[in-house]
Write a structure and sequence with these properties.
This protein is of the alpha/beta class and 688 residues long. The chain folds into three domains: 181 residues, Rossmann fold (3-Layer(aba) Sandwich); 304 residues, pyruvate-formate lyase- activating enzyme; 50 residues, no CATH class. Helices cover 31% and strands 13% of the residues. It contains 24 helices and 25 strands. The strands form eight sheets. A ten-stranded mixed beta sheet has the order 3-1-4-5-8-9-13-12-11-10, sandwiched between helices. A hairpin with a 2-residue loop joins strand 24 and strand 25. Helix 17 crosses helix 19 and helix 20 runs parallel beside helix 22. The termini are far apart.
């Protein structure tokens, strides 16, 4: 500030991450964006939160404090799926742990208030975004209030909030009071009552009990094409169905909606915090309605009562255009950590320093993932010129570049410039996924723009190799064999990661993931094009253990699938119920919010107990001797002792490496006697 001649900052951002001046890090992107608008921005990175003094180092901001936990939810960052404290933090110099508090947004907000109580407080980032309404918190095992209420902030910005941030800041500069700014999309704030002129709709009217087919429009809003006035088949609703869950003799009441109703002045009332905190069924219902009101083209405002206050959520932000995306990513980033960190290694930076983010958003809708809830389903793509320019900047500016770009991707590798064929259909659609249960016929699956981008990027002077590190959506990729060939023959460094997540249909249906047929199709293409290129390359599949809907039998079948195809996986992700994800609603409620939720609706088996979660993980790591004892006991209990032994069909042996002694019984069950071969035992001793 002294060097720049500033006597004060207009905005001070507080972040739980180390400061890295790169567009992949939220505080940097926001700081550069506001700087480009003419504002003086200060950033306090990873402050000591024990008292308010660290929050006064840049003085009092003229406009507001902006608080973010960082690129990750602080609880996900600090705890494992088993609720154990992590021993490192990828967003901290030298990965030192405990440099941010639990629930960082709440703690930082409190300290900002202590530092300067009269300064407006705005919270954002993924932690605030995914906790914008009453939400189930895995780490406390209870439903918590909206983070806006608990942080006592003046406003919450959710999603990628560039539009909201720029508009809010300029309006505050012009003298508007933050409490009076209530019309910006993508914002959340508190109200005492519903404003005059607004019509209120109970969420239970929109999503009333009844028969629902897979992924029909739950609000009975047929989508009409521009010509002919005929409803599009893939977006058809269940209007006119005679099937009903009503008791015999009961009369259904048809809800007739006014087609001329102004949706811009309609607000959907979600069940209150008090209701969802006590009733898991109402929690699942609220989650379902929130997700169905997520399309910027047709979403209405939402309101949820917390005590005597109303938490008001304006509709989601309008996605950035390609030109606007370029503006955000073309700003003069230094593309390195702050010099104050000297030679310290920051793992998150090391991972992305040679990668390029080419797009945002994901229309996959996987229930365990929160990308869609934060970034939206509509893909926002940068221009080819902007991406190629960044590749050249990495080549010229980033220390240690050896000619290898580690990734051209984003939330997924292959959704670049893919969108709905019709803007009208896209604006009216309420599907939770464009690719489940099958790829929507209205989705343009053309990968030609991505293929062209790959070719131009690898032709840049000084670039030896372009790798694709983001996960490939393989059910989408197989629609473009030319893309798969391009990917396999030029952009795989021996291994390609993909994410089937499971092998069993009833679990995949709870994840909203495609069946294994799509995996088999992609695998066949991958192997064919690898052979054509004369390369030995391998797929590395990722799977989730203990996902809602998974039973012990499902995990056993997955283990047998892994054994059949020779996979011995080291990295296994155990399901973590993150805020706002639909799978989290399943985990908490035991209900399936992909369908209408009632007391009597589908119950989902939930692997909650610690031992069950460990067992499910052990099934995926069936090859690890440390898991054999647990698996033997489980297999016997399941009546599958036939899978214990030395036969080719067996999943695990009877012996343990620690002793080499045969195990003949497990809780009374007779097992095949098996003694480890002498040569194998000697080899084990040699390398142990």
């Amino acid at each position: 500030m002294d060097a720049l001649g500033w006597d004060s900052c207009d905005i001070i951002l507080v972040s739980g991450d180390a400061y890295i001046d790169h567009p992949s890090f939220g505080a940097s992107l926001v700081g550069r964006l506001l700087e480009s608008q003419g504002f003086r921005v200060g950033i306090i990175a990873q402050p000591d939160w024990q008292n308010a003094s660290a929050f006064k180092v840049l003085g009092k901001p003229n406009l507001y404090f902006g608080v973010t936990a960082g690129n990750m939810d602080s609880m996900v960052n600090r705890y494992t799926a088993d609720r154990k404290i992590r021993s490192d933090d990828a967003y901290t110099p030298d990965a030192v742990p405990n440099k941010r508090p639990d629930r960082a947004v709440l703690v930082y907000s409190q300290r900002c208030r202590e530092a300067y109580s009269d300064v407006p407080l705005v919270v954002g980032s993924i932690e605030a975004s995914l906790r914008r309404i009453a939400h189930y918190d895995y780490w406390s095992d209870k439903v918590r209030r909206s983070i806006l209420v608990d942080s006592k902030a003046d406003m919450l910005l959710y999603g990628n909030a560039e539009r909201a941030l720029v508009e809010l800041t300029h309006r505050l500069t012009k003298g508007e009071h933050i409490a009076d700014i209530q019309d910006i999309r993508g914002t959340v704030f508190l109200r005492k009552h519903i404003p005059q002129g607004w019509s209120e709709i109970e969420s239970t009217r929109l999503d009333r009990p009844g028969v629902v087919e897979k992924h029909v429009d739950p609000y009975e809003m047929g989508v009409y094409k521009n010509t002919g006035g005929k409803a599009d088949a893939s977006c058809a609703t269940n209007v006119g169905e005679t099937k009903s869950d009503l008791p015999e003799g009961a009369k259904a009441v048809e809800i007739v909606r006014n087609p001329k109703a102004d949706r811009t002045t309609q607000v959907v009332r979600l069940p209150s915090y008090e209701e969802v905190s006590k009733d898991p069924v109402m929690y699942a219902h609220a989650s379902r309605v929130l997700h169905l009101e997520a399309n910027p083209g047709n979403a209405r405002a939402l309101v949820q009562r917390h005590g005597d206050r109303e938490v008001w959520l304006n509709p989601p932000p309008i996605p950035l255009t390609t030109k606007e995306m370029d503006y955000v990513y073309d700003m003069p980033y230094a593309r390195r950590p702050h010099p104050a960190y000297k030679d310290a290694k920051i793992p998150a930076w090391e991972m992305i320093r040679f990668s390029v983010n080419i797009m945002r958003g994901c229309f996959g809708g996987c229930t365990f993932c929160s990308i869609t809830e934060h970034e939206g389903r509509i893909i926002q793509s940068r221009s080819e010129a902007s991406i190629l320019k960044e590749v050249e900047e990495i080549r010229d500016k980033v220390e240690g570049f050896t000619g290898v770009i580690s990734d051209l991707g984003g939330p997924t590798a292959n959704m670049y410039r893919i969108a709905c064929k019709s803007e009208s259909i896209e604006k009216n659609c309420r599907k939770l996924s464009c690719v489940y249960p099958g790829i929507c016929e209205n989705l343009n699956t053309d990968h030609s723009a991505l293929i062209q981008l790959y070719r131009k990027a690898r032709a840049i002077k000084g670039v030896k190799k372009i790798l694709i590190g983001s996960g490939v959506r393989y059910d989408l990729a197989v629609k473009s064999p030319e893309y798969v060939r391009e990917l396999v023959q030029h952009h795989v460094g021996g291994y390609l990661k993909i994410a089937p997540e499971h092998s069993e249909e009833n679990v995949l249906s709870k994840m909203m993931k495609p069946g294994m047929e799509a995996y088999d199709d992609f695998k066949a293409m991958f192997e064919k094009f690898s052979i054509e290129a004369g390369k030995q390359q391998y797929l590395i599949p990722y799977f989730i253990a203990a996902h809602p809907g998974a039973t012990d039998e499902d995990m056993l079948n997955l283990a047998l699938w892994l054994k059949k195809y020779g996979f011995k996986l080291d990295q296994v992700q155990t399901f973590t119920p993150t805020p706002m994800a639909m799978a989290t609603a399943m985990y908490h409620s035991g209900k399936n919010p992909l369908r209408k939720v009632t007391v009597d609706s589908e119950n989902v088996p939930i692997p909650k107990a610690g031992n069950v979660r460990k067992l499910h993980k052990a099934f995926i790591r069936y090859h690890d001797p440390n898991n054999w004892s647990m698996l033997r006991e489980a297999l016997v209990g399941m009546g599958r002792a036939d899978l214990i032994g030395s036969g080719k069909h067996c999943l695990i042996p009877t012996w343990q490496p620690s002793s080499g002694k045969p195990i003949t019984t497990v809780r009374g069950a007779q097992l095949e006697r098996s003694v480890r071969p002498k040569r194998a035992m000697e080899k084990k001793r040699k390398y142990s």
